[in-house]
Amino acid sequence: PQFEGQTKSKLGNPEARTAVDDVFGKSFDAFLEERPQDARAILEKVILALKARKAAKAAKDTILRKGALDGLALPGKLADCQSRNPAESEIFIVEGDSAGGSAKQARDRRFQAILPLRGKILNVEKARLDRMLTSDQIKTLVIALGAAIAESFDLSKLRYHRIVIMTDADVDGAHIRTLLLTLFYRYYLPLIQKGYIYIAQPPLYKIQKGKEIMYVYSEEEKNKIVKRFDSPNIQRYKGLGEMNAEELGDTTMDPAKRVLRRVTIDDAKGADHIFDVLMGDEVEPRKLFIQTHAKAVKNLDI
């Protein structure tokens, strides 16, 4: 069978829908006639679902009627780039105002935009679209990207062809990345398929010996460098806010020096399952996943 939409909530095959309607319809009619109390309860749920869909559509239409930056107050204080060519423009979604301030100073304003987000965004796996669009952070992101959302998504209106998630290299940063990737997977899947979503790779350490400075991106790399030098000065970056603008620019934002990891989905069904397990309502599958993979964790921030 084929299903419609990114959430796969509606059967798409006309012949299958006809067959299902024929088989299910007669039996369901008989069930409703024989059990009026159950029929009334089902009807109430149908009406509630209808109201929810109408509320979601009304909230979405309110957002989508607005232009990219039509006077809407942006809580994240988007610092836009000068270029209006999406192919050469990129936006950094940054964790926190502190790192956002450094990123604004470090950027090349000709083609780099900065959008600081405060804290963790709403978990869209557990929220209806109408509730999503009442979230200032998500509303800000939707309007900044300029391409609408869900069924109204229009790739041709996307304002940036490189969208970079830039968070701290710790557990909280990983959680924020996961929440953002869930949003992009559920509502902006074409952006992942086109290769427009990236994750910045900030350094974990700054190692200095005399005038020589090295930025290190893994524990293994750090251990190798430490063995080469006698008592080097080691600085651990616990967050983006600990880097000044020059350091952040040199290590994480400069196209000639930075390390970006492009987000891809080789197996959409497999990725969908992982998102369901980690971000869904079911506790047991998530608990089993954590227990299964816990031994693979090498570094844990506590």
Automatic annotation (TrEMBL):
Superkingdom of the organism of origin: Bacteria
One biological process term in Gene Ontology: DNA topological change
Entry similarity comment: Belongs to the type II topoisomerase GyrB family.
UniProtKB keywords: ATP-binding, DNA-binding, Isomerase, Magnesium, Metal-binding, Nucleotide-binding, Topoisomerase
Any GO MF annotation of the entry: ATP binding
Toprim domain sequence ranges: 89-203
Enzyme class name: isomerase
CDD domains referenced in this protein's UniProt entry, alphabetically: TOPRIM_TopoIIA_GyrB (cd03366)
Signal peptide (from-to): none
Source taxonomy: Bacteria, Candidatus Giovannoniibacteriota
UniProt organism field: Candidatus Giovannonibacteria bacterium GW2011_GWB1_44_23
PANTHER family referenced in this protein's UniProt entry, alphabetically: DNA GYRASE SUBUNIT B, MITOCHONDRIAL, DNA GYRASE/TOPOISOMERASE SUBUNIT B
EC number assigned by the record: 5.6.2.2
Protein name: DNA topoisomerase (ATP-hydrolyzing)
Known catalytic reactions: ATP-dependent breakage, passage and rejoining of double-stranded DNA
Matches recorded under SMART domains: TOP2c (SM00433)
